[in-house]
Amino acid sequence: MKHSYILIMILGILALLLGVTSLHSRLVSLRSFNYGKEIIDLSNEYRRLYDEFSKEYGFEDYISIRIDDLDSLYSDLIFSIDNLESYYLGLDKELKILDQQYESLVKEKKLIEEEKKKHFFIDKVMLLNQYDEGLPTGCESVSLKILLAYYGIDVSLEEITSKLRKSEIPYMEDGILYGGDPDLEFIGDPHQHDAYGVYAKPILTVGKEYLSNLRYVENKTLKDILNIVKDNHPVIVWNSTNMSIPYISASWIDKRTGKRINWLKNEHALVIIGYTPASIIVSDPLTGSIRYLDRKIFQSRYDIMGRKAIY
Question: Which of 163, 253, 147 lies closest to 202, judged by CA?
């Protein structure tokens, strides 16, 4: 391609020279027709310049100069093309790196989104310590106040406990231990250390006086409860004190119904407000703080306590 381009240039130069020679001949012929001194002078001047050009450069030298110029131009073009190819390869490499970084960011975003699904926390939930509130066995009442406060309902613990149905602590009669039913009433007095506690239904009854759409659920799996929490609903559940193992510490008869009551020691109510893959996050009346409790142990204690919950 290079030599074809040079050949074309040589032919063009020869054609130019032929044209100049023809023009010169025409100017010389004008002299014979006496068209004027100016035309004759122009012809002479042109011939003089033509002769000087030929003597100084010669046709072969001129063509060589033009070929050298074309060679130089061709070399410059090749150099520019090489530079463009290198630049393109550099851009292509950078583009591949950017593609890899983009794919990595997409995967990272997906992992973060998946991880977020495994974590949840309800903010601005009240913290109350049952001991500071003078209710050493009143975790259920304190949990209810925490739940009501989340929905903007301000009610005192004294009012809650006064409305809570109660029975006396178990007593002996004719060699038989009688007592109340925690599914119906609080066993003892939540202000006293020797009281027992209460299950979900009596707490629900009091709570509905302030929040009519309060609900009680039973036999729901922990996963079901966490789905409720995920909808921004704190949930009161019955579990155990400090995740200790519940066990039957006392057994008595409800004299009114003849029902056998097996009391589980370490019964405790608290409020679930979030979770992680390894923990259940609670507002715990026992400590008046947010706690992260082992998820597997929490589930075990929740199951033992009968899967009771209010939200």
Answer: 163
Q: Which residues have a Cβ under 8 Å from the Cβ of 179 and sit 6 or more positions away?
A: 167, 168, 169, 170, 171, 187, 252, 253, 254, 261
The mean pLDDT of the chain is 84
Task: Report d(CA 124, CA 237) in Å as an integer.
Answer: 19
Contact 291, 216 (CB under 8 A): no
CB-based contacts of 306, cutoff 8 Å, min separation 6: 199, 218, 219, 238
Range scoring the smallest mean pLDDT among 40-49, 133-142, 189-198: 40-49
Distance CA(99)–CA(87), nearest Å, equals 18
Entry field: residues in the chain: 311
Q: What confidence tens digit (pLDDT) does each residue in 203-213 have?
A: 999 999 999 99
Above 90 in pLDDT, residue 116? no
The helix (run of H) or strand (run of E) holding residue 71 is: helix 59-117
What's the pLDDT score for residue 84?
A: 74
**Is the model's pLDDT at 287 over the cut of 70?**
yes
Backbone angle region of 154, left / alpha / beta, with phi > 0 → left and psi within -120 to 50 → alpha: beta
CA atoms within 13 A on the CB side of 29: 6
Q: Write down all domains in the chain, each with its CATH number in brackets.
A: 2-89 (no CATH), 120-310 (3.90.70.10)
User: Can you tell me whether residue 146 is helix, strand or coil?
Assistant: helix
Integer Cα distance of 279 and 2 in angstroms: 77
pTM: 0.67
**Per-residue pLDDT averaged across 81-95, rounded?**
77
Closest CA to 180 of 267, 269, 268, 256: 256
What type of residue is 8?
I
Question: For residue 266, which of 162, 137, 128 has the smallest C-alpha distance?
Answer: 137
Number of Cβ atoms within 10 Å of the Cβ of 21: 11
Structure-model confidence comparison of residues 43 and 35, the more confident one:
43
